[in-house]
Prior knowledge:
The chain has 284 residues and is mainly α. It contains 13 helices and no strands. Helix 3 packs antiparallel against helix 5. The protein is globular and about 50 Å long.
Amino acid sequence: MLLSKERLSSDTMNRFVQLSRPIVVLMGVLFLFAAAFIAVGNSISSHLNDLLFAVPVVITFVVGGNSINDYSDRNTDIISHPNRPIPSGRIAPQTALHIGIISLTIAAAFSLMLPNITATCIVVVACLFIVMYELYLKKKGFLGNITIGVLTGMVLLLGGAVVSDVQNCYIVALMIFLISLGQEIVSDIEDLAGDIDRNTLPKRFGIKNARYIATASLIVAALLSIFPILSGNTNTLYPSVIIADLLIFIAIYSIYKRPRNFQVLVISAMFMTVLSFLLGSVAI
């Protein structure tokens, strides 16, 4: 009986952890701190209290967005992602919806206590975007892809806003937006069979053309990495961005030759891009 209870407890924890997407949560928190360092460098130590307060805002936003996403996709996930908590029957749809609403409400409420109005506005707008995405924009395909890309980039803008210096985060946020946009388009290609109620790019223009658009987005992201060097706003560590660019081009190659590797490669490219900007901000 004790063993059964332990297994039940483990399953309960795992299903809610899976619903929250722990990798995405971790990415959000790391991007928050990285963006803050990119913005103010070694002066980040004077903003730690504000950043620590921003952490639950990011976590609850990501959990809320993913929970509502799974509720919204509960029917199509039966085909595309049958192992997710709702289609596998481990979490009731209404439970996921309630978790999503409560989490986004907490994120918006906590944002009112962030250090400035810019940071608060970024969070509130992001909450509105995710609701609009689930209710309307997701079905529009490419417009929904753009929305998710914007939301991913906004995490970096939030990191800059919390330390009162958004300007230094514009380029890295734009790069992450473009990488995320490419990732979302490729995800639509992967989920084509299950996206019966969405007017996605691969459905409208075919898989081949959707791949070309994703490729263009990723190439532009890589080209943007040159801008900080031309503007002279980096140190000798920033050329590590070459590794990020290399990962982006390997990810592009995988779209056509090894699609199964794409998601790992594109996420790695995101992390390396942000890390390169962070290294470029270190005082040496």
